[in-house]
């Protein structure tokens, strides 16, 4: 089973300004309502614990492996619940320059695993709402700094 969710937001700042906030992993606890903490600085090919807070109160610590940290382009990690194939998620942030010095942020996740049919509400409602909250908070943080 597979499922994908994706959200976008336009940020009134150049891509470098958005990127600098996205990779400032130590500042997430200050402004992010959903990604609460990184246990260390992520590096491609390595695992870094990430504390997530979903709307509605569910908190979970994931230990994803970071797949991409491509400057001014993409952050991508993949986590799993217990073992591969049960409930896996490949999370991504993509930044794209658009007209007038703005930046488009695309945040999404590709879910797979046998638990997908049982977790549709959590994916389609709670997780997607969390993405929307995160995007708005990132926009406010970037535009406030810029």
CATH homologous superfamily descriptor: START domain
> What is the top-level CATH class?
Alpha Beta
Task: Count structural domains.
Answer: 1
So what's the oligomer here?
single chain
Q: Which strands sit side by side, in order, in the main sheet?
A: 1-8-7-6-5
Main sheet record: 5 strands, antiparallel
Give the name of the CATH architecture.
2-Layer Sandwich
Instruction: Tell me the CATH topology.
Output: Alpha-D-Glucose-1,6-Bisphosphate, Chain A, domain 4
Global geometry: globular
Average pLDDT works out at 91
Helix fraction, binned, reads 25-40%
Structural class computed from helices and strand pairing: alpha+beta
Q: How far do the termini sit from each other?
A: 42 Å
Count of runs of 4 or more consecutive helical residues:
3
The Rg value, from CA coordinates, equals 15 Å
Classify the beta-strand content into a percent band.
Answer: 35-45%
Give the tally of β-strands: 8
Instruction: Note poorly predicted spans.
Output: none
H and E string: EHHEEEEEEEH
Organism: Sphingobacterium tabacisoli
Protein name: SRPBCC family protein
Pfam families: Polyketide_cyc2 (PF10604)
List keywords for this structure.
single chain, 146 residues, alpha+beta, Alpha-D-Glucose-1,6-Bisphosphate, Chain A, domain 4, five-stranded antiparallel sheet, three-stranded antiparallel sheet, 38% strand, START-like_dom_sf, SRPBCC family protein, Polyketide_cyclase/dehydratase
Describe the structure.
The structure is a single chain. The chain has 146 residues and is an alpha+beta fold. It has one domain: 2-Layer Sandwich (Alpha-D-Glucose-1,6-Bisphosphate, Chain A, domain 4). The chain is built from 3 helices and 8 strands, in the order βααβββββββα. The strands form 2 sheets. Strands 1-8-7-6-5 form a 5-stranded antiparallel beta sheet. A hairpin with a 5-residue loop joins strand 7 and strand 8. Helix 1 crosses helix 3.
């Amino acid at each position: 089973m597979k499922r994908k969710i994706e959200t976008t937001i336009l940020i009134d700042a150049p891509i470098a300004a958005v990127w600098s906030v996205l990779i400032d992993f130590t500042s997430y606890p200050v402004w992010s309502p959903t990604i609460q903490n990184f246990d260390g600085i992520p590096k491609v090919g390595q695992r870094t614990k990430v504390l997530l807070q979903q709307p509605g109160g569910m908190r979970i610590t994931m230990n994803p492996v970071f797949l991409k940290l491509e400057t001014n382009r993409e952050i991508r990690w993949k986590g799993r619940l217990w073992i591969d194939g049960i409930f896996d998620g490949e999370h991504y942030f993509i930044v794209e320059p658009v007209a007038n010095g703005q930046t488009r942020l695309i945040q999404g996740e590709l879910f797979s695993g046998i638990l997908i049919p049982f977790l549709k509400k959590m994916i389609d409602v709670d997780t997607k709402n969390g993405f929307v909250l995160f995007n708005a908070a990132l926009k406010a943080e970037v535009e406030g700094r810029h």
